[in-house]
Amino acid sequence: MVSAEVKPYSNIMIDTAIRVREENPDMKKHFKVIFTSAGDPVGWKDKIKGAGFTWMHVVPSVKGALRCKKAGVDVIVASGHEGGFHTSWEPVHSMILLPAVVDAVSDDHTLVCGAGGFCDGKTLAAALVLGADGAQMGTRFLSTQESDFHQIWKEGVVAAQDRGTLVARGFVGPARWLKTPRSDEHAKNTLAKSPGVFLGTPDDYTTMDMSLIQFEIESIKAVYEGDKEKALMAAGEVAQRINDMPKVNDMVQGI
Amino acid sequence: MVSAEVKPYSNIMIDTAIRVREENPDMKKHFKVIFTSAGDPVGWKDKIKGAGFTWMHVVPSVKGALRCKKAGVDVIVASGHEGGFHTSWEPVHSMILLPAVVDAVSDDHTLVCGAGGFCDGKTLAAALVLGADGAQMGTRFLSTQESDFHQIWKEGVVAAQDRGTLVARGFVGPARWLKTPRSDEHAKNTLAKSPGVFLGTPDDYTTMDMSLIQFEIESIKAVYEGDKEKALMAAGEVAQRINDMPKVNDMVQGI
Predict the structure, then answer these.
(1) CATH number of the domain that residue A88 is part of
(2) Distance from B32 to chain A by nearest Cα, in Å?
(3) Do B117 and A131 make contact, defined as CB atoms within 8 angstroms?
(4) Which pLDDT tens digit goes with each residue over A7-47?
(5) Are B96 and A118 an interchain contact pair (Cβ–Cβ within 8 Å)?
(6) A172 lies in the same domain as A87
(7) Which of A58, A96, A172, A204 has the fewest CB atoms in 10 Å of its CB?
(8) Is B252 a domain residue?
(9) What is the domain count for chain A?
(10) What does the pLDDT look like over A92-107, one tens digit per residue?
(11) 3-state DSSP assignment of residue B54
(12) Do B65 and B104 meet the contact criterion of CB atoms below 8 Å apart?
């Protein structure tokens, strides 16, 4: 199952990725890894592995990881609820999720990658100690010189302090945002219009009040207009540990 | 500030601890450590340190850790929101909170202890890698032969699976419970009657609907009556990684 909101688009996206790769020799040379999330990977194996991709898939649970194993996913990304933007309906966090997924699926053919809370050498070391083969750092790379996110978004991550994020509705389920008056308002609206975000009970566009999604669309648009007051900016809980906007090379060398 | 609900009792509890220790030579010999939580430690230093205790205090944030440092707390317990029973109003989880607290306060005189998500050798190793001096394991010790928690509670921890806990109102703020039909009902009631649990906005007994607390009292009573259907049983998110009820010595040796 793919999240109801994106189901019609999944085949189009995957087919396009495969076609682009087949039609363009340069893409075939460089486009080696495909990264999927927000749904059940079983059923996609023949298409994705058949096209020659290394396949990474994101899961928020042991149940999801076991489906990845069944599907033949190469790298399972265990995404703790600390992560930025879309998160799962039922929260499990990296300190629990990562070792649980490693215990459930890790072997010589199946790598596990931590996500959610990782931003530096000591958190990468923690991921490795917990049995992972690596860690994904989204918010850390967002706040770099080279990142093409809007400047107010990057600055928002750098400015985030202690307890600087919250969870409210995203396009395809719960999402983690930088805490601002705007996202506080969105969280209150979420509580009223999509309470499943806080209760772990999924809803979708066929049942929910769409004014919540309209608010999100306007708020994402505001980011790209540089409108700080109306902007909703996603980030991982780890934003509070990120206090600079280095060049990528300097940041990676520092890990 | 102490949580509004327990404020009147704080002085009584601390004074009693000090008096018992002064009156009883055996207690003076063995009662060396005092463990406090759920409030601001500043203002308690003279009383607690003056009585000769080693002082441990639990905090859910860097802000709280800085108050501990100011208060002269000996061991600061950085309690991630993954932890069982009472948690903070504003969630920060161990992978972020622990290194953030270490960076903010750790020195030769101030130790930092991780809490929330720790249950075995690899999570203890992760705590140490993140800069902590140790880790607290509550749910792990709850599920041991020697633990005096009720048998259905201990069995509930062992039985907990993937995504096996949820957050709903506790006596003095948000709390983490094993996920059951009863706690699901309590979470729904919390959303209606104490929405601040999900929005990070504290309420207390002077403003909230007390039927929620009455429900909790009945549900805790049910645990001690062995009534599984009506029981509310607290546990950390890590319950899903705990699948046995060993003797304490065997468990500790295995770490």
Answers:
(1) 3.20.20.70
(2) 31
(3) no
(4) 778 889 999 999 999 999 999 999 999 999 988 999 999 99
(5) no
(6) no
(7) A204
(8) no
(9) 2
(10) 999 999 999 999 999 9
(11) strand
(12) yes
